[in-house]
Amino acid sequence: MKKIFMAVLLLVTMIFTGCGGGSDSAGDGKLSVMLGSNVVSLDSANATDVASFEVIADCIDGLMQLDSEGKAIPALAESYDVSEDGKTYTFHLREAKWANGDPVTADDFVFAWRRHCQKAEEYSYIMGNTVACVKNADAVIKGADPMTLGVSAPDAKTFVVELDAPVPFFPSLMTFATFYPINEKFYNSLEEGSYGTSPETFLSNGAFVLESYIPGTANIKLKKNDSYWNAAQISLDKWEYQIVSSSDNALTSFKNGTLSLVGIGGNQVEHVKKDAELSKNLQTFPSGILQYLSFNQDPKNHHAGALSNVNLRLAISNAIDRESLVENYIMSGAKATYTAVPVEFAPNAETGKFFSEDQKKFSDVVGFNVDKAQNFLKKAQSELGKENFELNLIYSNDGDSATKVVQAIKSQVEENLPGVTIKLQPMPKAEYLSNLTSNNYDLALTDWKPDYDDPMTFFTLWTTSGCEIAEHWSNADYDKIISDCTTGALASDYSARWNALYDAEKILLDNAVIAPLCTDYSAVLISPSVTGIDFHVAGVDRVFKNVKLK
Amino acid sequence: MYKPEPDDFEFISDRDITVDTNFASQGYWKSVAVHFLKNRFAVTGLVLVAVIIVFAVFAPLVSSYGYQEIISVTDSVGKEITAKSLSPQFGGGDSQNLFSDRTFLFGTDDMGRDLWTRTWQGARVSLIIAFVAIFIDMLIGMSYGLISGFFGGTVDNILQRFIEIIGSIPTLVIISILAIFMEKGIGLVIVSLLITEWIPMSKIARAECLKLKEREYVLASRTLGAGSFHIIFKQILPNTMGPIITQVMFSIPVAIFTEAFLSFVGVGIVLPQCSIGSLIEAGFNNVTILPYQILPPICVLAILMLGFNLIGDGIREALSPKLEDM
Amino acid sequence: MTKYVAKRILMSALTLLAITFVLFVLIRIMPGDPFPVERMSAEMILQKREELGLNKPILEQFVNYMSMLLSGSFGNGTSLYNGAPIKPILTACLINSFKIGVLSILFGTAVGLAIGIVAALNRGKFLDGLCTLVSILGVCIPSYVFMIFLQYFFSYKIPFFPYFFDPSNFLMSSIMPALSLSLFAISTIARFTRNEMLEVINSDYVKLAEAKGLYGFELIRKHVLRNALIPIVTVIAPLVVSLLTGAMVIEKIYGINGVGKLMVDAIAGQGVDYNYVLALSIVFSAMYIAAMLVLDILYGIIDPRVRLTKKEG
Q1: Kind of pairing between the strands at B72-74 and B80-82
Q2: How do the domains of chain A map onto residue ranges?
Q3: Does B179 contact A407 at a Cβ distance shorter than 8 Å?
Q4: Which CATH architecture has domain A37-243?
């Protein structure tokens, strides 16, 4: 018996040797930030999610960065020149160093950009002809020689990009992580696939360096990078991320001082609003995420006979009370949206007005009006010769708010449109995406987060050849407007392009290709001791470079 | 040589046999029942489960709200207000507060549905899932175990390898694959329980069978020419019923638990349907700010667990009365 | 004996191979592509599938996969921790889960044994009832619910334990998850111990020992405990496996990067990461089979009759 006891004791000590140490409580004078999901990868070519882009941007600077207003200002590029036709950008790099002492050169950009196109991961598309229009990017993504990509480095401090078409928002695109540099020498010294999997295999040139990280960890620690070109401006010494999956955990960990910045859900927002002390810390920011219903018009689909009828689509779109949706069920500050582009997104560079400033623009087709909806339904019923429609609504069940939104939609549509029943089908994200791409659904609750600050990030979703998440809808006029605006005649005329996009939106909404629902807002609690966190709608969500602690 | 005469024989029933009425021989199951009912814990368990079943059957029927119904009223300015996230209230309130004259014994959830109705509807769904799944599991597991144990040798070896393969595939993988072929919901949960839960049942049946097949009475009926299936199902099966029933009693709570887990990871019941698991999952998201939402389903779950476990323990003790004699 | 063990090990290896094949085929038919497709065109998706070798015949894919496994690699992630090799990540997660699992098994066994022994020795008395109740209560509440309450009371109301799992403060931050995980172990072991003890106490040789004049602690220690405890080993082995794989929800709530969380992320994430799901399933299966193997061999040592019947069969 004694021997067994000793063995057990030994085992316990063996397991815990090296562990221990006092627990330091957070709260004042410390920044610990909640991440809502795992970091997929710190390799900018493999990253596919908001969390990864954010952490990469903490550690690596690109050519440009976003200021607190969301405008692109120079970062590693000291300045840049644009050719007359808007198709060639020449960036002049500043003196900056990687954390290992190597200088940041134009070759680091050339290497990274070629690699991203060659790897053809999810975000490679952003180099291609729907977004950045980098010369030959689409060909390289399809397997052509990466050397043909339209990037070059005439000297160590000059980086030249050639485009297939002028892109009005190209400088602001440069704030996105896919366009960041990677140190080629460092990368090649690593084992295949190990780049970005630990602090040792990840090289910063930005404000912070990793202190502790492994893939899948729930806790990421960062510290200040002393060799950062703008190190004098960084006052944050050490801080950390904590991955928190439940909104309730987020609230309690904020209350007890474990975390100083958390995102919370609707029920938590309601709770915080009732608490005078706590509600002082509550802030909401537009997230640019548009939630909408996709209607599947694929004639091969077994219910599609019905949904290819525009009146049925209009009926459903007009039967949904969006105000009640955001007020009663989402509750975290989301705003009802009646346009195909979210509110408070994509300001016009000339007038400064947001693209969807006028929410009444399409009120004849998108809105909440039960009588109108029932009229549409009657038309649909007589046109289709069918009284009852049973529709499947698929959604990805990884969020609490989506579950509530679909239940509310089901209850509203079934109440307002007698004869229409909705069957809810929750599924994991992967399965949901594969159903969307294979057109195996009737209705889908979709959300789309903008990748860059231009309405085009939404409009390319509905072109015939665009993204695979399609409603199986095709319209030649619409496609023409979009291609004119990206690579065609309108690309260089800012205000004409802007107005053409409204025409495209009208085609989209008159045909009720989608039923826009709302624009998500993120509700966050920020500890009063933390100031200077910048929140952005597109690209990098949160920037911590200007954070000051009291 | 003596030749038997008819008079040599007489009908035994004509004789006057004294029957011992004081110590009448009891039937096996009757004695089990007596032992079971003597056990305070077991009876408590029975009562707990019975109470929950009664509520699960009748409460949704007599409730004034539907379990999917989003309750709303029109307020003084004609705006529709949803009764979401109301804490428990018992009606008879002042007319100032719009909902205070309504009765919500367990409060309402964050969609504005009555939790009293939903809790009992959820209990009903969970119980149906558990009973159906475990009953079929019992049939499958029993037959499989008996066949495996009775025939032994190569048959046993192959069947046991098969169990090892099935048993070692993670449940989450099984259910994700099943979800391709089936619609999500009660059916899917039942089928995934069928795939995993019959294994312990078959192991018990096999062990019992191994013990019983060497018994004299089995040998006797084999000598008399009984076929394998007759022996398995007529001779051995009835004698394995005791341990199997005990196992069933312990499997039902496991099934309810598994359902709760599946709902928690998002592959269980589809809302607005509900089960104990999906209610716990919904409540979990707001546990510290709206704790009354998670308490009813957790309490019902705990009472069911307690009840079935007490019953299981009671049956096990009643089946092995030698422990009683201590 | 050696021959029996060797045969049994060979058998397990074959079973594992069969399982790997079954898993491989099953995972290939899971819905969704193994990489995120939200922003890819149909062409890019085809290209990516080609690149990952998903268009080859399934047998060829399996052979490729096996040769990769045999060279000691699980491949790279395709959607979860995209591009990074799986093995180091999996190892780190296994170690975390293992540490917490061991802690909860140690705690569970100690408390479970104590409860079981006390109950058996006081059979039918008040203490027995109390112990039975305690051990049943352990299975009444799901471990994750218990974890939520622990977290709420002991790191929020009374901030004694860290609110989230902190690898640099392992001991303090693993107590709550280990405690909630051990509930099930406590009740299983307590019930099993009680029944075994009662059986042994009732056996002829203990009665004989009693007749010889042994009594009290000496009798319990020398004759009852020793014989009752051996079979308990057979419950603990599968418990270890179930604890390693069964902590999904707790790991998620408390932010532990363990294998359970990894599994959920791999199945329910952006894409179904085939390589992760496969690697984890194979590891889980291997653990399960190893536990069964250990059990069988233990049975063989404890009870020679098992070995004999196996030989005949």
Answers
A1: antiparallel
A2: 37-243, 288-521
A3: no
A4: Alpha-Beta Complex (3.90)
Q: How many Cα atoms within 13 Å fall on the side-chain side of residue A125?
A: 23
Tell me the chain C residues in contact with residue A428 when contact means C-beta distances shorter than 8 Å. Answer: 32, 267-269, 272
Mean pLDDT by 10 residues, chain A (550 residues): 56 47 47 89 87 92 88 90 90 92 92 90 85 88 88 92 88 90 92 87 92 87 91 90 87 89 89 88 89 84 74 92 89 90 87 87 88 92 88 83 88 91 86 82 89 87 69 83 84 86 91 91 91 86 88
Q: What is the mean pLDDT of chain B?
A: 82
Cβ contact B271–A329 (<8 Å): no
Secondary structure of A34-55 in HEC code, one letter for each residue: EECCCCCCCCCCCCCCHHHHHH
Q: Do B180 and C31 touch (CB under 8 A)?
A: yes
End-to-end Cα distance, chain C: 15
Handedness of CA A264, A270, A274, A280 (dihedral sign): positive
Choose the closest CB to B286 out of A248, A407, A428.
A248
Question: What is the dihedral sign for C-alpha C205, C207, C210, C215?
Answer: positive
Say which range, A83-97, A449-463, B86-100, C136-150, has the weakest mean pLDDT. Answer: B86-100
User: Most C CBs within 10 Å: which of A15, A123, A397, as the mutation test of the C interface?
Assistant: A15
Residue keyed to tokens 């409603």: A471
Maximum C-alpha span of chain B = 116
Q: What are the angstrom distances between the C-alpha of A486 and each of A466, A493, A499, B95, C294?
A: 12, 11, 14, 61, 65
Domains A37-243 and A288-521 share a fold: no
> For residue A25, what are its two tokens?
């409580």
Amino acid identity at B252: I
Q: Which residues of B touch A324 (CB under 8 A)?
A: 80, 82
ipTM above 0.85, yes or no: no
Torsion over CA of C127, C133, C138 and C142, rounded to 10 degrees? -160
What amino acid occupies position C33?
D
CB-nearest partner of B289 from A248, A408, A426: A248
- The CATH T-level fold of domain A288-521 is Dipeptide-binding Protein; domain 3 (3.10.105)
Label residues A438-464 b or e (16+ Cβ within 10 Å = b).
ebbbbbbbbbbbbbbbbbbbbbbbbbe
